[in-house]
């Protein structure tokens, strides 16, 4: 299901497991719909999501690991 190679905006190429993405989705759904509707991953490209996540992760009080897994989920959800 992850047929495309990661885009250049993703820092480093690494193996992303389905479990990692599933956790990211849970954090996303629990944390990112509190202040506004849950954003649509396809509304922004992978590069824009870097900046959005940098401003939203502190608002959602995500730790670094959660920040990364939510970002990876959002970007993967585009495919
Ligand atoms: C504490 C409240 C709060 C939480 C939690 C929150 N947001 Fe936001 N979000 C905002 C506010 C306020 C804005 C609009 C103002 C701004 O852009 O800073 C916004 C705007 C956005 C936008 C629109 C940005 C744009 O440029 O169009 C996106 C996308 C977004 N948030 C995604 C997320 C994601 C993903 C998460 C979870 C990691 C999240 N938000 C969690 C308050 C929050």
From TrEMBL:
Transmembrane segments: none annotated. The keyword Metal-binding applies. InterPro entries: Cyt_c-like_dom (IPR009056), Cyt_c-like_dom_sf (IPR036909). Residues 19-79 form the Cytochrome c domain. Keywords: Heme, Iron, Metal-binding. The keyword Heme applies. One of its GO terms (molecular function) is electron transfer activity. This is Cytochrome C. It comes from Kaistella flava.
């Amino acid at each position: 299901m992850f047929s495309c190679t990661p885009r250049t905006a993703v820092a480093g190429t690494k193996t992303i497991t389905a479990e990692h993405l599933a956790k990211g989705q849970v954090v996303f759904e629990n944390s990112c719909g509190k202040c506004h509707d849950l954003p649509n991953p396809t509304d922004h490209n992978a590069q824009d999501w870097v900046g959005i996540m940098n401003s939203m992760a502190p608002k959602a009080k995500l730790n670094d690991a959660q920040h990364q897994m939510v970002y990876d989920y959002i970007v993967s959800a585009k495919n």
